[in-house]
Amino acid sequence: MAKMKKKWVALCSTAVAAVYAAGYWSTEVDKPEMLVNGTYSSPIVSSKASVSGNDEVPSKYIDGTYTGMGSNRRGMIQVTVAIKNDQITDVEISDFAMHYSIDDVIGMPEEVLQIQSAKVANVSGATYSTIAFSDAVQDALNQALRT
Amino acid sequence: MKKAKLFMDTVVQIEAHCGKTMSEEELDIRVSRAFDAFRQVERACSRFSPESELMQACRRIGKATTISPYLFEPLRFALEMAEWTDGSFDPSIGRLLETKGFNSHYLTGVRTNSDADLSANFRDVELNETNRTLCLHKPLILDLGATAKGFAIDLAVSELKGCPGFVVNAGGDVYAGGTDEQGDKWTIGIREPKSANTVLQTLYISDASVCTSGSYERRSEVEEGEHHIVHPATGRSPNEWISCSVIAPYAMMADAFSTAAFAMGGDEGIALIAEAGLQGLILTRDLRIKRIGGI
Fold first, then answer.
1. Contacts of residue B277 in chain A, CB cutoff 8 Å?
2. Is B113's CB within 8 Å of A24's CB?
3. Which residues in chain B touch residue A112, judged by CB atoms under 8 angstroms apart?
4. pLDDT band with cut points at 50, 70 and 90 for residue B129
5. Where are the beta strands (DSSP E) in B89-233?
6. Where are the domains of chain A?
7. Dihedral pair phi/psi, residue A126, rounded to 5°
8. B175-193 per-position pLDDT tens digit
9. What is the value of pTM for the model shown?
10. What is the C-alpha separation between B260 and B257, in angstroms, rounded?
């Protein structure tokens, strides 16, 4: 049993070390994807997304940082979206300290709001999605649109 | 300090304090580098962006391609788990997940529909440790939904290691490092599936990860009763358990074991966690709690 655990732990620690050993960490954070080679020769995967490899087409969005607002049943949600070369590079939830905690915005039923007594700050649960934030992100994107 | 950003279709929240030894500026830098870990891993492993390293690799069939450790490492772990569970856990099921409606990018809404082969399995994926290459022997779509996020957490943790206390919470997959501001172990709850603010169990942990796989979030919009964990052999979502949490020294480990055990279910799933010497807590469909490893 102990031996099994060791094997998996070793795999994990090797995995983290590999990123640092390869020197990826310090040098690549701000660069665009390093292993993209621009040509998609194999048509095996057809995606509905258009792959932009054409620099002559003007960008859809103006680079910058935009604040977007959205709402759900708990109130307003504010996000700050950073855009660079038509890619969303960062989405920060900018005012979660104001009138709700992150846990509140996940779209839980109303009745739960009554029983917050046993509140624990950090909860492990099945991974929730970001649907509650999509309006706010869209609002920011609309502002970034090149007109 | 506490910050939250969106990555990998979930909310990643990092909370950290600098104690007496670290400056606020230093803490800021570490937290921002910790978020960078998520950005890097997402860029490499996303199944929802045609430009990701993973999706580019999935367009090259039969050719060995050098890949970065951001993709190589979580894929290697997933393949080890696939081998260990004899395919009950399988990272080659991306296409199957697409057909169940799990194919839309959370920021752009763009849907991906690939022409991959549903007959492929993890044995059609070949990693070469020496050359760090990946070769797919059949058209398939990789899905690293059970290891990439855990790996991103582990990389974030290595950036935060110098802080006296921090918690990385990626949408319910948690790592707690050091102690809280009072010097106590961190309090982490395991969620009661019916409500986001009630807990099944409270844990006090330090330098460990708790990850939970469950059927109560991320339901399929296409097929009733289906969710984002699928058993490769049946092509269906297991519904014997509602939730399965695993505590492990690394998040990638907790993440992969909770998902694999959930996919297997029953005594087999429980044995998977126990044999690895890990602790776990399972909530079954008939609302029984099963504890593993003296939790």
1. 1-2, 4-5
2. no
3. 195-198
4. very high
5. 125-128, 133-136, 165-170, 173-178, 186-191, 199-205, 208-214
6. 58-116+128-147
7. -60, 140
8. 999 999 999 999 999 988 8
9. 0.87
10. 5
